[in-house]
Amino acid sequence: MSRTELPVTGQAPPERADAARNRRRILDAAARLVAEQGPEAVTMNAVAHAAGMGVGTVYRRFGDVSGLLLALLDEDEKRFQEAFLGGPPPLGPGAPPEERLRAFLHTLAERLSACRAVMGAAEAASPGARYGSGAYLTMHTHVSLLLRQARPEADAPVLAHLLLAPFVPSLFEHLTAEREVSADRVKAGIDALLGAGRT
């Protein structure tokens, strides 16, 4: 599988130094708000005030609260992509596609558990935006490629969406926080989904 097949996060052209500084100030301000008051405290006005700049600058850089919150997760997303695109197996290349798919979905469950508050706030701010994000498109493409290798008879693009559906932050929050479903039970459910339809 070629790494160039996937729309990897963070491939935008290099920023000017002043633009990069502004971006960092905004993200640092947003991260402070999340740490001190929770993701629900992140508004464009609050972040602009905390960063000491005009709210228009924050809107121009990130579009809306969802874009800003997703940008906070970008560094972790890059590390995750590096791991499944080129890291050691079974998450990275070198393992059979079925093992890589299982490792990918298990790791995704762990990531969502760790970041669910910020991801949930991003989803609430802009429902459906995740499906057009570079992170989701990369995950969907990766899962589709693994499915094509593991199950050539399957409708890989549709099945990839269905396998990623449980990782909508609001559903994951419902399962883990409200229903008290443990991470191990989530992973066991993933394994059951992966085994469904096998003869």
UniProtKB/TrEMBL annotation:
Keywords (A to Z) from UniProt? DNA-binding
Instruction: Output the lineage of the source organism.
Output: Bacteria, Bacillati, Actinomycetota, Actinomycetes, Kitasatosporales
Keyword Hydrolase applies: no
Give the organism the record lists: Streptomyces toxytricini (Actinomyces toxytricini)
Q: Name one Pfam family in it.
A: TetR_N
User: What is the recorded name of this protein?
Assistant: TetR/AcrR family transcriptional regulator
Q: Which residues bind DNA?
A: 43-62
InterPro entries membership: Homeodomain-like_sf, HTH-type_TetR-like_transc_reg, HTH_TetR, Tet_transcr_reg_TetR-rel_C_sf
SUPFAM superfamilies on file: Homeodomain-like (SSF46689), Tetracyclin repressor-like, C-terminal domain (SSF48498)
**Gene3D superfamilies, per the entry:** Tetracycline Repressor, domain 2
* HTH tetR-type domain ranges (all copies): 20-80
Region Disordered, annotated ranges: 1-20
